[in-house]
Amino acid sequence: MTASSPISILCTNDDGFLAPGIRILARAARQLGDIVVVAPDREQSATSHSLTLHRPLRTRVVSEEVTAVDGTPTDCVIVAMNAVLKRPPAFCLSGVNHGPNMGEDVLYSGTVAAAMEATVLNIPSIALSHAGEGLQEDQGWEELLVRLLPQLMEVDRFPPHTLLNVNLPAVAPDQVKGIRVTTLGQRRYSDSLTRAQDPRGRDYFWIGGTVSHWTGGEDSDFRAVEEGFISLTPLHMDLTNHALLEQIGKWRLTL
């Protein structure tokens, strides 16, 4: 990255193009290169890597830099790459999500999924989330990201086929203790399904755990965030359990 040749950066999220988090991220990224924001026109949290296949997608040009899409975060990356951008971006930044994306939550997160889709398309990608509630634009996170992002976006050493999952702790930016490289913890929800009845006496169900329980080693992402550190977890696209290939190969499976 040089001042004479600014890089192009795609910004997206799952909270929608109006969310404070993506505005913070876009302003920070603008100091590092030329940005284009392609994001959902409404909240798309927990949509994971879903695609819109059974209806057409529509876009709305909000400004010279911002395009809103009536689809999922993954849709947004595909639309950006094939219809909005004139050339592939050097980076994709997804976030800043309102709420953490740690442990198994990365499997449900639209924020992480957008970064994954860009990674599939060979675009170096970073997903960013904030572990606190009510992320505000005047809290100083922009200045912190301006310092952090260039260190992560070194193209010559960015790991291939890998995205970086970053979680900011729920403390003031000037109280952040540092950065830890972490592994994914494990999160389990209690009472993840609520059953009730509508006014006509018919059952309905509401998914969403109210109490979560974390487990994991000392290098887990949730431990770093709880202790006031930024968690940095590399996520690889290859889900194969290579350690079991030889063992399963000895099962002598037949038909």
Write the layout of secondary structure elements.
Blueprint: E1 7-12, H1 20-30, E2 33-40, E3 59-61, E4 66-69, H2 73-84, E5 91-98, H3 110-120, E6 125-130, H4 141-152, E7 162-168, E8 179-181, E9 186-190, E10 193-197, E11 203-207, E12 211-215, H5 221-226, E13 230-236, H6 245-249
Parallel strand pairs: 1-2, 1-5, 2-4, 5-6, 6-7, 8-13
Antiparallel strand pairs: 3-4, 7-13, 9-12, 10-11
What does this protein structure show overall?
This protein has 255 residues and is α/β, with parallel strands linked by helices. The protein is built from six helices and 13 strands. The strands form three sheets. Strands 3-4-2-1-5-6-7-13-8 form a nine-stranded mixed sheet. The protein has a two-stranded antiparallel ribbon with strand order 9-12. Strands 10-11 form a two-stranded antiparallel sheet. Helix 1 (20-30) links the parallel strand 1 (7-12) and strand 2. Helix 1 crosses helix 4 (141-152) and helix 2 (73-84) packs parallel to helix 3 (110-120). The mean pLDDT is 93.
